[in-house]
Amino acid sequence: MEQWYVLVHAHHSGEEKDIFPIIETLAGQKGIMDANVEQHHVFEKGIDAMNLYVKACLIDQDKYDGTKVKTLIDAFAPDLVTHLRDEITTLLGLRSFGNDRLQNLMARFAHVGKQQMAEVGMLTGGMSVLVGHDVGYEGGLHKGFPPAPAPLIWGLRNVGWWVHSDWWKFGPCDRLGNLKPLHAIPVEAKA
Question: How far apart are CA 30 and CA 104, in angstroms?
Fold first, then answer.
């Protein structure tokens, strides 16, 4: 959960600081991403509360309680899901500005992506991305994600994985990106 928080925080702060201003500049329309920024602020307090609890557990200032974690997640999850759905619509709506205006968008994003990966770390944030990415989803349509050099991905999957392998057992995918059975399933879910 700590790595998930780090990734979400880096992603949203990167959007607000770098990505959204790039979109607005290329589209030539200031404020088109403001609704997305406002949504970040709606769920960010809940995510921060969960992160503070997790950090307290990691340094033995608090005792881990799965019910409390679920309650903390339930407090921000609906707003996060709404944001993720709405942001897809916002991004698809950028088509209305035309390819000519936005043709350099992905190249500009690549630079920001490299900065964000440097911020979260390859052996922690990078591995967290890989552990959460199902390469078979939608028939493997997204198996080339993240857009990184093949030797780097190979190194993370085959060497980097082992640095914190005890963390990744809780992830939804194995080191190769294949879905795996959940490590811990609530008793009521087994019934």
Answer: 18
* Cα of 19 vs its chain's centroid, Å: 15
- Scanning the structure block, which residue is given the tokens 């008793």? 187
Determine phi and psi for 3, rounding to 5 degrees: -65, -35
Looking at the fold, whether 40 and 84 belong to one and the same domain comes out as yes
The Cα–Cα gap between 133 and 174 comes to 9
Q: Which tokens in the block code for residue 96?
A: 């209305």
The residue segments making up the domain with residue 59 are 1-103
Which residue from 143, 142, 160 is spatially nearest to 151, judged by alpha carbons? 160
Among 103, 137, 166, identify where a domain stops.
Answer: 103
Each residue's pLDDT tens digit, 108-143: 787 787 888 888 888 888 889 899 999 999 999 988
Report whether 93 contacts 27 (CB < 8 A): no
Residue pLDDT, tens place only, 42-101: 999 999 999 999 999 999 999 999 899 999 999 999 999 999 999 999 989 888 888 888
